[in-house]
Amino acid sequence: MHKIMIISGAGLSAESGIRTFRDNDGLWEEYDVMQVCSTQGWENDRELVTQFYNARRNDLKDKLPNAAHHAFARLEQLYPGQVIHLTQNVDDLLERAGCKEVIHLHGTLRDLRCEECGYTWDIAFEAQNEHDACPVCESDRIRHNVVMFGESAPAYAKIYTAISESDFFIAVGTSGQVIDIVPIAGEFAHSLIINPKREEHVTAFGSFEKSIDEYFEHFIQKGASAAVDEMLGLVADHLR
Ligand SMILES: [Zn+2]
Predict the structure, then answer these.
(1) How far is the CA of 10 from the centre of ligand 1 (A)?
(2) Buried b / exposed e across 174-183, counting CB within 10 Å, b at 16+?
(3) Cα–Cα distance between 92 and 124 in angstroms, integer?
(4) Coil, strand or helix: which one is 51?
(5) CATH 3.40.50.1220 fits 4-17+65-106+153-238, yes or no
(6) How far is the CA of 120 from the centre of ligand 1 (A)?
(7) How far away, in angstroms, is 135 Cα from ligand 1 center?
């Protein structure tokens, strides 16, 4: 039985220097998001998309977990078997901090996947070009393992399982624009959101008057790593 469910987003890894399209920074300025992160773009130019993910994988190599990644690993140690961490991030910084119970909702940057047999394998920070065939079926139809626009995210089903098994919900570093965390918070008696700023509640149906934090029991208005002590304190209070 899991007691604590965590959903994390880009804000968790931002302090480790992991950039996203929303930051309009460096690597990302050279690419059009729909060319490199959509099924359409993948069909149009597999080489460009492969280069893009190779660059991101290479970029991840020298990044380090920050205090927040380490705090979530600590949480797992303090409450063994009671933490389930669903992350929207494709980096491996939670794992490198020592987390074991991580579900990557949008895939994993370090892995490649075979389009023929579905096998996935870890190539660490290498370029895909050095892996020209699937180690299982030898197909040359191989790709990055990150969910693109226009694809379903099979791991989303695990959100519902996690909700039914948990009683405390922590959202960290997510603006709620990709996964609407407001209805999820509504399923919990106890909830905490960590975000440096108040985020508008925007959905496909429009924007709402209340900001996202108003749907949560607790709000720590800080960056992820600055919120660590307060978060561990709140969890301890609830699970006492
Ligand atoms: Zn294969």
Answers:
(1) 31
(2) bbbeebebbe
(3) 10
(4) helix
(5) yes
(6) 8
(7) 7
Per-residue pLDDT at 82 exceeds 90: yes
Q: Cα(136)–Cα(201) distance, rounded to whole angstroms?
A: 45
Residue (of 114, 155, 115) closest to 134 by Cα position: 114
Report d(CA 180, CA 203) in Å as an integer. Answer: 7
CA of 154 relative to ligand 1 center, distance in Å: 19
Task: Quickly count: other Cβ atoms within 10 Å of residue 130's Cβ.
Answer: 8
- What is the predicted pLDDT for the residue at 205? 81
Which entry of 85, 106, 144, 201 is annotated as an active-site residue? 106
Write out pLDDT tens, residues 121-155. 999 999 998 888 999 999 999 999 999 999 999 99
Neighbours of 95 (CB within 10 A): 16
Are 218 and 188 in contact by the 8 Å Cβ rule? The answer is no
Is residue 106 part of the annotated active site? The answer reads yes
C-alpha–C-alpha distance, residues 158 and 162, integer Å: 6
Q: Provide the residue ranges of all domains of the chain, joining segments of one domain with +.
A: 4-17+65-106+153-238, 19-62+110-146
pLDDT band at 157 (very low <50, low <70, confident <90, very high): very high
Collapse the DSSP code of 172 into the 3-class scheme (helix H, G, I; strand E, B; otherwise coil) and give the result.
Answer: strand
Any idea which architecture 19-62+110-146 has in CATH? 2-Layer Sandwich (3.30)
Distance from the alpha carbon of residue 136 to the mean position of ligand 1, in angstroms:
5
